[in-house]
Input
Amino acid sequence: MRKRCEEAIPEYEEVLALNPNWSNALHGLSVCKIFTGAIGEAIPLEERAIRISPRDYRINIWYAQIGFVHLLQSRTDDAIFWLKKARNTAPERPYVPAYLASAYAIKGEKELAAAALAEAQRLNPDGLYSSIARVKARFRSPAPSVAVLYESTFYAGLRKAGVPEQ
Output
């Protein structure tokens, strides 16, 4: 899957044909769908993983993925709902409060955005969330259609939350 999602998708689909209940493969396929531009297919895959394995230790990752897709699709209230679920099940994951900071800022909830951003920065002491440039450098580039969504939602929200460009 590492930077080769187009190749990984048929592999995940083959694995799921053999074992339709492998929740980790469902999540991997969801990630690849986002990065290749089929963002609309991601949430049903994560929801299926949750139904199959509702007590899985990775459930917070699935919640976060659903929340992030909602954020990218400008469904801010839905994003906040799922991201709060993710934060509540794994408060140590730094990307979840970063996603929340973006969603809160887009919604105009400045205090909540600032608090979530501070939490993301505290949980990630390497300075990842100190600039948009650092965030972009850390994460791989999605398909151009999804990169536009990242820019207009996630990065725009981080900017509104107070993350500088450089």
About this structure: The chain has a mean pLDDT of 95. The first helix runs from residue 5 to 18. The chain has nine helices and no strands. The CA atoms of residues 72 and 149 lie 5 Å apart.
